[in-house]
Every structure is written in structure tokens, then in C-alpha cells.
Amino acid sequence: MFQSKDLSEEQIKKLRQWTAEGEQLADLQRKMKEEFSLNVTYMDMRFVVLDLGLEIQSQEEPEPDEPAEQADDSAVAPEALGGGPGEVSITVDNIAVPGAMVSGGVNFSDGERGRWMIDEMGRPSLDPDTAGYQPTRDDLVAFQNELRKALSEEGPGRPF
After folding, report:
1. How far apart, in Å, are the Cα atoms of 21 and each of 10, 16, 32, 66, 158?
2. Can you give the pLDDT at residue 136?
3. Which domain holds residue 36?
4. CB-based contacts of 47: which residues, under 8 Å, 6+ apart?
5. How is residue 50 annotated by DSSP?
6. Where is this region: Disordered (predicted)?
7. What's the rounded Cα separation, in Å, for the pair 4 and 7?
8. What is residue 53's predicted lDDT score, i.e. its pLDDT?
9. How many domains does the chain have?
10. Do 123 and 87 belong together in one domain?
11. Based on the domain organization, do 79 and 112 belong to the same domain?
12. Side-chain half-sphere of 54: how many Cα atoms within 13 Å?
């Protein structure tokens, strides 16, 4: 297992530079191999980034061609989503949908609901219950904040 303590100061400096330039985990992994001949797994790179306190800037993902696999509606009861009109709330599924590391439900401020997931490559997706629904920018920011908070509270049992 590769660890951040295995890195030289030069390598750490380069990692900080690359993350500041907006590079993603896969890019960091590739550059470590190209520039330093280090074969680092994707998961190990995630741990190194966390250990060093680096922040990967998120990129907007285009809409997927095929919708993510839906969990059956009984997986999360609507009342479990909590939140009423005016606030964004999320839930985290106890068992993620197939193809996802983690998944759950979301209730937007206008009452619209949907499903979210983070796939095995770390890519997020959002599937609103109403076809064509676009949450407001404020709702998306609130969703990201709620998701970050919920996932950080989930503890060490989670794969991220």
C-alpha cells in the first residue's frame, strides 16, 4: 500500500501544484507514474490526497446517456427525506444501488425529489423524479453541502 509518507518533498510539492491547477485524482495518478515512475492505485491516491489535506476541485459532469439504475421506491420512504419546502435535505442509503459506492435521496427546496449516487469511479450523478427538472443553483450548492456533511458523518466504514 502506497502512503503519503513515501513521498519526497518534491513529489508533495508537485501534487499540491497539480491540485491547485484543477487536476483530478486520475490525472494525479497518471502524472505520478509519468513523472516519478510511481504506480499508485486510485484508492491510494485518494488516501494520499486526504493525508496531505489537498482539495480536488469538482468538475461539472455532463448528463449521462443512460439514467443511473434506480433503487426501488421502497428503499427510502418519502418522509425519511425530511425537510419541507424551503430547505434541501438528503438521505444516504444503507446499501448503495448497484454500480455505486454510495447513493441516496434528495428533497429540494421546492418539494421536488430525486435520487443521487457516486459511482465506483467517484463520479456523482443526480436523477430527479420529475423528467427534465433542473434544481436551482442555490439548491445545487445546498445539496453539495448537505452531501459533504452527510458523507463526512458516515465515518470510517465508508469507502471514501
Report:
1. 17, 9, 15, 31, 28
2. 92
3. 4-52
4. 3, 4
5. H
6. 56-87
7. 6
8. 85
9. 2
10. yes
11. yes
12. 26
